[in-house]
User: Fold Bromo domain-containing protein from Stentor coeruleus.
Amino acid sequence: MNSDEIQKALNLVKHLSQMNESIHFLHPVDYRALGLHDYPHIIKTPMDLSTVKSKIKTSLYINFDDFLGDMILIWDNCRTYNLAESQIVQQTEILEKSMLRFCNQNNISLENVLKRPKIEEHPDTVPFQEKVDLSERLKILSAKRLAYVVGIIEIDCPKAITQLTDERIQLRIDALDKNSFAKVKEYAFSEKSEDTPTKRIKLEE
Assistant:
């Protein structure tokens, strides 16, 4: 990028960083601290405003379109991982619109960047919403049916079970591989009627 483009890029990052909605996008997602164990499996190319700024200052962008591509990636990652109606996605929409206004005001074209193919999810990744749906379903299964689910996981994917106490275990939905997830999902949704809730097992999405 030339000096003019570099300044425009820095100005855009600064403008967005000063907005209240940018709080979750200023730095890389600390998925370990947040307990988002499936984040690196779903988001293959993380991006945030501080990383973009660092790449600008260290001349890692060959052209302005590469910079814009990373900016759009921030918003796409958010929408990929989070539910459409979530607050963080609403914040993304506000930030993206602000970016578009900035580009229009500064004669910056997004045409080439928007034509680029999206980064596809890893083929072995279970969509986040499906994990949420299964977790909610397991919460209403009877103790008998939930015990059967535990049996499936113990055989097919034991890493997804954590023993909390002698009488309580934790199921980690995010740790299920795709085949195990499919098997558990098929059984959990095999009956339309809801079962009596059980509290024996703690679920972690």
User: Anything to note?
Assistant: The chain is about 55% helix and 5% strand. Residues 128-204 form one domain.
